[in-house]
Design goal:
Blueprint lengths: L2 H29 L4 E9 L4 E6 L13 H5 L8 E5 L1 E2 L5 E7 L13 E4 L5 E7 L6 E3 L4 E4 L4 E3 L7 E2 L6 E3 L2 H11 L8 H7 L4 H13 L4 E5 L3 E5 L11 E4 L4 E4 L4 E4 H8 L11 E3 L2 E6 L2 E5 L5 E6 L6 H11 L3 H28 L1
Helix pairs in contact: 5-6, 7-8
The protein binds zinc ion (ZN).
The site of zinc ion (ZN) has 7 residues, from loops.
């Protein structure tokens, strides 16, 4: 045989090997109880990314297993790639994948497991979760959790590489890994939470005080943190060996990774049985009304918790304001006089203790 003939023969054998291994690997997924779907990988020049188009209808396998006949009917001789339909496996785990669309990603940020390099130079990290896994996406960070009913292209599809020989790690709840990664990448755990917290309209000064009080209560086990978050062992899903709760240091909300629940500090304290200190100048009853400070303004709050009157703090002691408050609250001039004096006195004391605290830190 001539050299070119030999080369051609070994190339054919190489292709056969490739095909066999493609089908072999696919079979091992099928044996786990997962459906496999042949796909065509195509470069999308416009979006500058690889597209994968399923080569057969796969929707029926979302509700029932793929039969052996269906598996064998796939044209294994002619395909170069396939994907796995993620979901529950025969041994009762939920097979899922963290999809990271970053070329320079630090694998050290992830719980170690079986990793693949994708054709788009991203990372696929495969896990077996005891809890069902809902897919989640964060475009801003280039990460996605692929779960129930999602397709994921796997090795040895064309362009995909194994990065190790590990078995996919068993985890309690793969969703917690997703939130963990968001926090570690410095992202906002729940971008929509901020508005929710703002709606509670509590002074930042008071929020800081509350956070300190919660942290000092001893009811949370803090495991670490970064510039933005405290990482905490989730108090609502014990035992939580891998801290799956975080508190935003600057935006004052907590997130439970297990269920994505957002907690304002008020709500968190309530659930933990911590009684928070009052708001600035709070507890000042004017008959059926309340006086409260917000920023540099004083508000008169009615029984429905609505502000009905406001003035600058430095004007509170003026005759004009006292007269107006007397009219609004139906309280006599003397009583108003006393209440306002006590109110200003308390504010002064609060400011003093705050100054002392700030000087200490
Ligand atoms: Zn939890």
């Amino acid at each position: 045989m001539t050299a070119p003939q030999l080369a051609e023969k070994s190339e054919i054998r190489g292709k056969e090997m490739e095909r066999r291994s493609l089908k072999d690997v696919a079979r091992s997924y099928w044996q786990m109880g997962l459906a496999v779907v042949p796909i065509k990988l195509k470069w999308d020049a416009e979006k500058q990314k690889w597209n994968n188009k399923p080569l057969c209808d796969w929707s029926q396998w979302q509700t029932r297993p793929q039969t052996l006949e269906e598996f064998e009917a796939i044209n294994w001789e002619n395909i170069k790639a396939f994907s796995v339909l993620l979901g529950k496996t025969k041994d009762g785990y939920y097979f899922c994948c963290l999809d990271i669309d970053k070329e320079d990603f630090d694998l050290g940020l992830l719980r170690t497991t079986y990793f693949e390099r994708t054709i788009g130079k991203g990372i696929h990290a495969f896990y077996r979760s005891r809890h069902p896994v809902e897919g989640m996406k964060r475009h801003d960070l280039g990460i996605e959790l692929l779960g129930m009913h999602n397709l994921v292209v796997v090795y040895p599809s064309w362009g995909y590489k194994r990065l190790n020989d590990n078995e996919p790690t068993v985890v309690e709840n793969a969703q917690t890994l997703f939130y963990d990664l968001i926090a570690k990448l410095g992202g906002e755990l729940k971008p929509e939470a901020e508005k929710q917290i703002e709606a509670e309209a509590v002074d930042t000064w008071l929020l800081e005080k509350w956070l300190e009080q919660i942290l000092k209560s001893g009811k949370l086990k803090i495991a670490g943190g970064n510039a933005k978050y405290y990482y905490v062992h989730c108090p609502f899903h014990l035992p939580d060996r891998n801290p799956s709760f975080a508190i935003h240091k600057l935006k004052f909300y907590g997130v439970d990774y297990h269920d994505g629940q957002v907690y304002s500090l008020k709500k968190l304290a309530e659930r933990l049985g911590i009684e928070l200190g009052g708001s600035k100048g709070e507890g000042f009853r004017l008959g059926a009304f309340k006086l409260e400070m917000k920023g540099k303004d004083v508000f008169l709050i009615n029984q429905k918790n609505r502000p009905i009157y406001s003035c600058k703090l430095h004007l509170l002691n003026s005759d004009k304001v006292k007269k107006e408050l007397s009219q609004l609250t139906d309280l006599g001039k003397k009583e108003i006089e006393e209440k306002i004096a006590a109110f200003l006195f308390q504010l002064e004391n609060e400011d003093k203790s705050r100054d002392i605290k700030e000087r200490k830190t």
